[in-house]
């Protein structure tokens, strides 16, 4: 088995696509979305325009929070990367924390983090 190591990603992004909330056979809620990020980053002293799209998934209580969002909302997403499946090695962000960045201008501002129970 692999040794534990650092695997945390924090990304400010816009919810580009939001799939309907679904449940596993055991009844655990799952929400999936597409995230779109655009920014300017410094690379070797040179400003670079960066854009990326990434699939993300939230499980359990956090899935209900994500399902209540709307496409176009800006969030700060924190979680870990894992392969989509054994057959598809495409990375998917598994969310552990969502911070809504909309601010007060839209009347909605929240930060949600779900702790594992154990």
From TrEMBL:
InterPro entries membership: NA-bd_OB-fold, Primosome_PriB/ssb, Prisomal_replication_PriB
Coiled-coil stretches: none
Pfam families registered for this protein in UniProt: SSB_1
Gene3D superfamilies, A to Z: Nucleic acid-binding proteins
Keywords: DNA replication, DNA-binding, Primosome
SUPFAM superfamilies for the chain: Nucleic acid-binding proteins (SSF50249)
Record carries keyword Transferase: no
Similarity-based family: Belongs to the PriB family.
Task performed by this protein: Involved in the restart of stalled replication forks, which reloads the replicative helicase on sites other than the origin of replication; the PriA-PriB pathway is the major replication restart pathway. During primosome assembly it facilitates complex formation between PriA and DnaT on DNA; stabilizes PriA on DNA. Stimulates the DNA unwinding activity of PriA helicase.
Quaternary structure and interacting proteins, as annotated: Homodimer. Interacts with PriA and DnaT. Component of the replication restart primosome. Primosome assembly occurs via a 'hand-off' mechanism. PriA binds to replication forks, subsequently PriB then DnaT bind; DnaT then displaces ssDNA to generate the helicase loading substrate.
Protein's recorded name: Replication restart protein PriB
Organism for this UniProt entry: Aromatoleum buckelii
């Amino acid at each position: 088995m692999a040794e534990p190591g650092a695997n945390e990603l924090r990304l400010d992004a816009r919810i580009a696509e939001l799939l309907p909330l679904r449940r596993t056979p055991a009844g655990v809620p799952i929400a999936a979305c597409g995230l779109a990020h655009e920014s300017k980053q410094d690379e070797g002293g040179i400003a670079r325009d960066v854009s990326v799209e990434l699939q993300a998934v939230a499980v359990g209580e956090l899935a209900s929070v994500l399902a209540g969002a709307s496409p176009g909302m800006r969030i700060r997403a924190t979680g870990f990367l894992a392969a989509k499946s054994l057959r598809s090695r495409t990375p998917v962000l598994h969310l552990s924390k969502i911070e809504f960045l909309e601010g007060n201008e839209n009347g909605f501002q929240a930060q949600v983090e779900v702790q594992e129970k154990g």
